[in-house]
Amino acid sequence: MPLGWIDFSKSERNKVLTVLELLSEDGTLDELGIAPIRDGFANLFFPGTSTIQTRAKYFFIVPYALRDLERGKITDSSQFLKAFDEIERRCGEIFRNNNPNDTGIIGSRSLAGGRWVKRTPADIYWAGLRSFEIFRSRNLSLSEYAKKVCFEKGQKNSLKRLGNRNDNAQEYETDDKGAGDLRSCHYWNVPTYSEDWMDMLTMELTLEEAAFLKSQIIRCKRDSMFAYSLENEMEEIIGLSDFHELGEIIERYPAQMQEDYWLAKEFSEFNFVLRILYNIVLSDGENEEANEWFEEYRPFFVKVAGLDLDGIIERTGTRRNTEMCVFLKNCKKAMAEKDIKKLKYLITQREIRLKGAGRARTAHPGSFDTTAWYGGKRLEYRFSNARLLMSDIFAGEEEDRA
Question: 9-14 contacts: CB < 8 A, separation 24 or more?
Answer without folding.
Answer: 10/364, 10/366, 10/367, 13/364, 13/367, 14/367, 14/368, 14/369
